[in-house]
Structure formats: structure tokens, C-alpha cells
Amino acid sequence: MVSDRTHRKWEIMREAGRVVARTLENVREAAEPGVSLAELDAVAARSIKEMDARPSFLHYHPDWSPTPYPATVCLSVNEVIVHGVPDGRVLREGDLLSVDCGAEVGGYHGDAAVTFAVGTADPAGVALMDVTRLALERAIEAARPGARMGDIGYEVERTAREAGYGILEGCGGHGIGTALHEDPDVPNVGRPGHGLLLREGLTIAIEPMFHEGGSDEAQVLGDGWSIATLDGGRAAHFEHTVAITADGPVVLTLP
């Protein structure tokens, strides 16, 4: 079932989005060579608690996972595309770190992700992040009443293919509101003019995930959550929660 939201509910989701945005900033500021992923997860937990919000990911247990998610944020390094579980791994200069964060305020969720370099990235890493961010921008611009879900997926897909990047197969965005993941699915591939009709009131998370090498294949690691490239190529992940309004798309996960 696809839910529509009133402006008042968007305002609550906007508060959750601010918590997410500020937490992403706090984690980014703390991410330096020598810092462990577990330490960054603790930064995120403090950030969300200090803003009187609740972490959306902690103990989240979808049907496809063998165990509940054990941390506050997903931290995915280099070849890990998404759902990386924070552990004792220590960051190194030049690592690409994807941070995915969700927070709940007043019964509504916000969800966003960003990828950045620890220290200085090499040119190929910079290009990967820039193109994935561009795909998100193009997809958000397509999220307007009267468009189709395929228009969003098309913008993501064409951006990846033009640059020669792979797209994580079977993963994409989702509806969001009183639950972290709701209908509809928001695929990262699509055909213009096809799929669900977008209408005012819909709130969705759009999240392109690209990786080097051009292959769409990936593997789930031993923790049951982390999804990594098969060939070791690095990945980038950008996401925003977006409200579809009569005046166009409104990003709800900004500071």
C-alpha cells in the first residue's frame, strides 16, 4: 500500500531529516585515519540521542536478514556497497566511506546516505563519488507529480552506464514514513514513462549505489548484512528522503 502524507506530516519528517543530516555531518567530521568504525557508530548514537530522536536502523530486522541490525548506522568501506556493519576496522588514508543513517522523530522516519573520502581520494574515487551524487540529483529532479517511477530509475541508470559503473542488482530506494521501509520500491533502473504514477504526497527515499568495474553483481558477506562487490571494486552510495509536492520535489534530509 502506497501512503500519501499531509504537509504537517512532512514537517515532522523534516525534523527527522535534520537529525539524519546533522548526524551524517558529525560522523564525517570524526572520520579520520586511525579511527575505527565502531567509534564512528558511537558518534552517531550520541548525535541521535542528543537530538531526542531514535535510531531507525538499530535492531531493524527485515525478512531477508538472519539477524537484527546491530548498530546505529551502516558504515561501508571501499568494496562494501551498502549495509556495512561497524566493527573494529580502522580507517586508512584514501578510504571511501559510505555512511547510511536513519532516525525517527514523532513516529516518522528520515533516511539519507553520503560517501566521502577519508583524507584525500584518488581521481578515480572522486569521479565515482561525483557521478553517484549526480545520479541522485537527476533522480530527485525527476520526482514530480505526473511522472512515473521509471523516470526516476532511468535517470539513475543512464548516469551509471554513461560512466561505465555497475549498479547494485536488486537494491534501490523505497517509500518511507511511519515505517523505515514502505511501498513503493524505488528502483535504480527504469524506463521513462513506465511504472507507478507519482503523485503529490508521496514520500520516498532515492538512493543510487554505483561501483567500479561495470558489473552489477555483488555478494553478501559473513555478517549477513554487508553487501560487497565481487571483484573488489569500490562503491559509492548517496541518498535523500524526498517529498513529492505540487511545486516539485522537496528534500527532507537537509541540515
Description:
With 255 residues, the protein is α+β, with helices and mostly antiparallel strands. 29% of the residues lie in helices and 25% in strands. It contains four helices and 15 strands. The protein has a five-stranded antiparallel sheet with strand order 8-7-9-14-15. Helix 1 packs antiparallel against helix 2 (37-50) and helix 3 packs antiparallel against helix 4 (149-163). The longest helix is centred in the first third of the chain and has 24 residues, at 7-30. The radius of gyration is 17 Å and the shape is globular. The two termini are 30 Å apart.
Count of individual beta strands: 15
- The number of helical segments is 4
Helix content: 25-40%
| Class by alpha and beta content | alpha+beta
Strand content: 25-35%
What is the residue-averaged pLDDT?
96
**What is the overall shape?**
globular
- SSE run: HHEEEEEHHEEEEEEEEEE
